[in-house]
Amino acid sequence: MTTYTVNAKPGPRIHALVIGVGNYLYGGTHYPAGSQLAGLLRPITELTCAPLSAKHVAGSLFEADWTASPIKLGTVELLLSPTTPVLWSADGGATAPERALFSEVRAAGHRWFEKCNSSEDNIALLYFCGHGWGSLRRYLLVEDFGEKRDEWDEHLIDFTKTRTAMLGCRARTQCFFLDTCSVDPDQLAGQTISAKAMVPNPLKESDPYMSIDNPIFSSSRPSLHVEAQEREVTPFAAAIVRTLNGLGAAQYGDNWEITTGNLPTRLGEVMAWYGPPEAANEFYPVPGDAWRWTMMRRLPKAPLVPFKLGCLPRSALGSAEWELRCLESNKEFRRAPLCRVWSDEVPASAYRLTVTFPDNSHESVTQPSRVIHPPPRPYDVTVKQSPRH
């Protein structure tokens, strides 16, 4: 069992289930061409990005400062199926997380469900990176999928069933991050699939409808393949971490808070900022049933916000000298003239922006209050040529 307990004190908690499947025992050429499973399994190749991405997401949860958040991180269930052994530092020592085999995923899913079910104010968070199928009905492929030839769907996770079963969980906020493709293989047409949920299903038909804030954030639109770079964290995983670490925050009074209502827009904006462009175009959020804005995290201080400052016309950049002075802390940020936009990051706040031209080629410009808040944005300053030039 690979369960990491971060905070076991009484009170609402975030309980995360993080899975990264990079090694598929029965994929590729395991079955000969022409066999019943060959068409399904041949496209299922190694995904070196998946364990790295899951580690990145899980690591960011552990490293985040939760002191200001009313709902703190409680536990993390981590399952990895890498192509080479991976050690995970926890409790002062190193341990190898459980592999994402069907039985282990289901066992971890049941533990996760029970923890989430302990309070309606808990937040259930699922991140899965690996091969996936389905546009309308989603399936997640674990390490030992395809082990049984005669029962090929035996080791297949039905995500749609999982999300439906989670309606029986008391946690009213549930966020699902699916870092997978969402294609429908031709071989599945007309097939009756008996895949299982990864969590128990305590709901009965007579139970009342549960209003759950349960959005799905998918890295791929329906019926779409997504490309991933080998041995690199996926753009979607990187965007999740950056968004939850601050770029998804909005200011409410003196607090910076990340809510489920902000996540769809902010994740897309962060993916578009850091690229590649196709990743942002493929991102596909599905709203939750309740349309609530649940606070996921309150930051201990204002987040760092990337920005790009440029001149119009661009020809003035080479002689522009920049200064940002924070109106709150009076701290200064400067950049000497360079023939490119000023790309940097500063704490979210309002700034006095000044651009001067030591060569007197253009007139100086001062903006008394330039607000730099999440999400990342480019800003252009229009300048006029000096009459003496």
Explain briefly what this protein structure is.
With 389 residues, the chain is α+β, with helices and mostly antiparallel strands. It has two domains: 3-298, Rossmann fold, CATH 3.40.50.1460; 304-382, Sandwich (Immunoglobulin-like), CATH 2.60.40.1120. The chain has helices at residues 38-41, 49-63, 102-116, 159-165, 235-247, 263-274, 277-282, and strands at residues 3-5, 13-21, 72-81, 88-90, 93-95, 123-129, 132-133, 139-141, 156-158, 173-179, 216-218, 249-252, 255-259, 284-286, 295-298, 304-312, 321-326, 332-335, 342-347, 349-356, 365-372, 377-382.
Mean pLDDT: 91
Continuous helix count:
7
Shape: globular
Broad structural category: alpha+beta
The number of E-state strands comes to 22
Strand content: 25-35%
Structurally, the number of domains stands at 2
Description:
With 389 residues, this protein is an alpha+beta fold. The protein folds into two domains: 3-298, Rossmann fold (3-Layer(aba) Sandwich), CATH 3.40.50; 304-382, Carboxypeptidase-like, regulatory domain (Immunoglobulin-like), CATH 2.60.40.1120. Helices cover 19% and strands 30% of the residues. Strand 12 (249-252) and strand 13 (255-259) form a beta hairpin. Helix 2 (49-63) runs parallel beside helix 5 (235-247) and helix 5 crosses helix 6 (263-274).
